[in-house]
Amino acid sequence: MKTVLVAPKTVSFETGADDFLTTRYMHPLGLISLATYAKQHGHEVTIIDQGVLNLTNEKLVERVKKLDPDVVGIGALSKSISNAKAVAFDLKTWNPNLKIVFGNYMATFSARHMLENYPWLDACVRGEGEVSFKELLDAWDGRRPIEDVTGVSFKAGGRIKDNPDRALIMDLDTLPMPDRSMVSHMFKDEILGIKTEDYKGTSMYFSRGCPYACTFCACRMFTHGTYRVRSVDKFMNELCEVESMGIKRVILVDDNFTLRRKLVIKLCEGIKKEKLDIFFSTEGRVNQSDYTMLREMKLAGVSTLFFGFESGVQRILDYYNKQITPDMSRVAIKHARKAGIDAIIGTFIVGGYDETYEEVNQTINFIKSVDIDFPQLVVARAFPGTPIYNDLVQRKLLDDTKYWEAGVDVIDLPGSFMKRQGLKRLVDERYKGVFFRPAYIARAFYRNFASKFRRGIVNHYLNPKEFRRLPSLFKGAIDVF
Q1: Model pTM?
Q2: Which domains are assigned to the chain?
Q3: Does residue 371 have a pLDDT over 70?
Q4: How far apart are CA 120 and CA 283, in angstroms?
């Protein structure tokens, strides 16, 4: 079937404007994987990335109309659902026979809500989508009964039907290499909306899933706590192809890249053997920060490492079920520094339901006491599908009928210990000081000129046009409201 896959723009929950906190200009790897698999089985698929192409909803609808597809698939997240709905409604109004299907996290956890509330929606693909989406297209093309397609929810005869869940793809090597030629752009890496260098780049994954169960994260629910890896050879084949495309920057989007130490080291040895000239970014857990592994990652080209520190207070870490301590975070930072990682970025969450102002203050003190390059502070939000969301619903503190689409900042729920304005004042008063300490500035200057990767960022900002935008990078780091 002739199909268009759409990656809609994300927007700010507060203002509704384009959201740069979560948007990076990188390839929509999930959609590319779906499209490649469907094409391999005889379907015609086109991908449109609204955010990268900077299309308004009206322009996006015009593009889809010109392609005149039979099916439009949209990857729906809480931050993009407003655009996804608007585009889908306009397309269904234009062609009532057009099949509209949603996928990704929202479609997995809120399929019934969606099908009940969106009259223009025909189906949802739940969980991993490659095989389910291809078989759904087969069903709509008359090749198989839709009732036999596991992992989908759909409308039939005025009723909503939920087919059984699809088993996870245990052998990831059976999936074809993502066909990046389906998207015309190469992403420029961004942090908080600020382009950080001029390297062409893409996204890749080595593994899927995570066995941990952090309460703010839906990954465990999405993948049933199962962790699967690709073979090193398969990954290296794709990586060599990526380099042949002129790509110098790869973001590894694994849910938990550092879980298996020996496998990570083996992969790094393969990258070094090929002498690939690529900078990598990835995420790691602080309780998986063995120095030898981090050093191998650095030697293989890992330039940026994101750690989820979340808090400097043990009680809050326990509430989020992080299974770490502040001391573990300190050790992880020391190991990453010793290993030579160019940029260490830490994420922190404030505004938990029963978190106090003093505990937020302790977290800011922790940030100032550790040697990281860039701290990113976000307000705790309960998203559908996460344990924290389910817990608040069960405790009757959160109304699922009201928040099933976008979730809610828990600080705005009745009974929250802190108030938004009080938290904002505290952050405004204390957080800016993180960036303007003499020790922080001195270290930043030294590292910027000692690192090839960081020199590239500095050279990028010597351009007067980009230099004027630099202050907004630091504003974005603290303007979490």
Answers
A1: 0.90
A2: 2-162 (3.40.50.280), 186-478 (3.80.30.20)
A3: yes
A4: 38
